Amino acid sequence: MATATMQAVRFHRHGGPEVLELETVPVPEPGPGQVRIRVRAVALNHLDLWNRRGLPGRTVPLPRIPGADVAGEVDALGPGVAGLDPGARVIVNPGISCGRCRACLEGRDNLCPHYEVLGNRTDGGYAQYVVVPAANVIAMPGRLEFVEAAAVPLVFLTAWHMLVTLARLQPGETVLVWGAGSGVGSAAIQIARLLGAHVIATVGSADKVARAQRLGADVVLDHHRQAVDEEVRALTGRRGVDVVFEHVGQATWERSLRSLTHGGRLVTCGATTGYEGLTDIRYVFSRQLQILGSYMGSKGELLRLLPFVEQGRLQPVVDRVLPLAQAAEAHRIVEERRHFGKVVLQVP
């Protein structure tokens, strides 16, 4: 019997977007406890770019199919899987954990020693089919189409974990959100507004200002043309903000710390501009600042935020949709920051 095949985008070596190749590969078979998903849409994340380029100290087995944010339909169940119907419309929780360790059993699966993100060390969703653990399959919010649904999991889960769980943002507090045009930045603005906070957001070009305002930002600054920390001080009567939502890294780190009020919290999930942020330790202890590291979030947190998506109170922001075959161009768009929100690949 001939082996069933599918279309998938893979990279066989690290490098620029040109290393992404559309290929014909075998359809994966679900093993015990796994589910095969017929992928309809997959959203891009910066993690896809980092894995493609190669990260110091991290090994990505090659060749690799990237893609963490998947929306599609249940196609086949592996041995021992029940409660999922073929054809059901689903999204995938992109964080994969062992399900057995203490962190997993306590509901903090993103602290699992074996935690991985789909498309990193396991093949992801830039393909017609993907196999994932049954525990990661979640019913798709009914009001969404596949493209919108693919734009939800990673960025909303990350922003929720940062603002709700770690920073404990409160009604009436002020938060500075860097990079409102990114997927995680656009999610953070909405979550902060949902929590009743005052939002100062930054963008990198004038054409993104109005879009950030429509999402709920009270004030929008151009971080290329304005000294953000000085503007924040002026806007808050020299007080500073209660929380900084940081994911840019080296280029913004010092300004982020200077933007905080006494007792403020900086929560960070990324370093897209570099890993080495200069920190004046005296400033940290004299102002009693908190620096909180964040990576993804738990399955329970994703389940808690999805009702707000279903109600339309949190809405995925899709900048543009490209076919799977144009994955390399999609990567270029994200690398060059030509997007506002998510770039999504539609899978034929």
From TrEMBL:
Coiled coil: none annotated. It comes from the Bacteria. InterPro entries: ADH-like_C, ADH-like_N, ER, GroES-like_sf, NAD(P)-bd_dom_sf, Zinc-ADH_QOR/CCCR. Keywords: NADP. Pfam families: ADH_N, ADH_zinc_N. The keyword NADP applies. CDD domains: Zn_ADH_like1. Residues 15-345 form the Enoyl reductase (ER) domain. SUPFAM superfamilies: GroES-like, NAD(P)-binding Rossmann-fold domains. This is Zinc-binding dehydrogenase.
